Amino acid sequence: MNRGNGVGGVNLPAVRGHNEALLLDLLCAAGAPGLGRAELAARTGLTPQAVSKITARLAAEGLVADAGRGASTGGKPRTLLRLVPGARHAVGVHLDRDGLSAVRVDLAGGVVARWSGPLDFGAGPGPVVDSVVRAVARVSGEAGAEPPLLGVGAAAPGPLDWRSGVLGRVTGFPDWAGYPLREVLAGRLGLPVVLDKDTNAGVAAGAPGGPGSGTSVYLHVGTGLGAGLRIDGAVHRGARSAAGEFGHQVLRLDGPACRCGGRGCLEVLCLEAVARGDLAEAARVLGEGAANLAALLDVDRILLGGRVVDADPEPFLAGVRAVLESRVLLEHPPLVACSPGGVAEGAAALVRGRVFGWA
Q1: Fewer beta carbons within 10 Å, N or C terminal of the chain?
Q2: What is the pTM of this model?
């Protein structure tokens, strides 16, 4: 994360966007009280003159405004600056296998509008894209009546290539393989589109105000089971966008067949327990997988989300914590909590974060 912690500004015109992002990120973190220009210069390493020029430009764009006067230290009281959250909005969309949700958020991540409804992912690209376009329209408001949209973040089941915006062989949905979802949505919506896996969007939603430092894991329990990874403050996708297939680690060699082709995968064991109403067992299985990840990656936080967890979070929180606390190798078990935001909010954060230089 920027915010002046070891990431400095560069006083060159060619990197103006980088410097703007540094300042906006600091102001976003500061919230309504704001920061003075001298503080911004000290935290970024930019000269006071550079800070003044950049903030004047940001103010002209409506992104920054005065936040009043700071306490005097003997001279003229300093003018404080704050981010204007409502200056720009972003839309996030979550395409689940049987449901669709969309949100519009401001620059600070506050949800301004929300909609959800059913979706048949198996109906194929055409009908699904039509549904996404309608969902974006529902939360976007009337043209010209709302702040400008930065773009749309779309979170979909993996595998997919987030760089090219093309879906892979989504388990159970062969018609989607090779489909250029990002390109098609951008063409239909007339807006920039970011496409990522639902679990990567989930871990983006779990970072208050930005990416944060350290390592965290988002575990999503819904129609499938996957993980989003944030390592050293950045979403970790892997060289082939394949990181996070958490649900397909094998826990029982002779276990039931999984749709991935393996046997005894965490996903099939956990979801079978959910299906028979044994949430304690489902949480224990999830905890075993979480303990494997904690030992492998030395994570700071484990965030739980997805419709199954959201419907009844306490058994999952208790069960995962109990397994982690039983592991002698984990002297300091990671924090376990529910994710503070949903996948749609995380998809919007992937768009919003580009303003602050951390997406």
Answers
A1: C
A2: 0.86
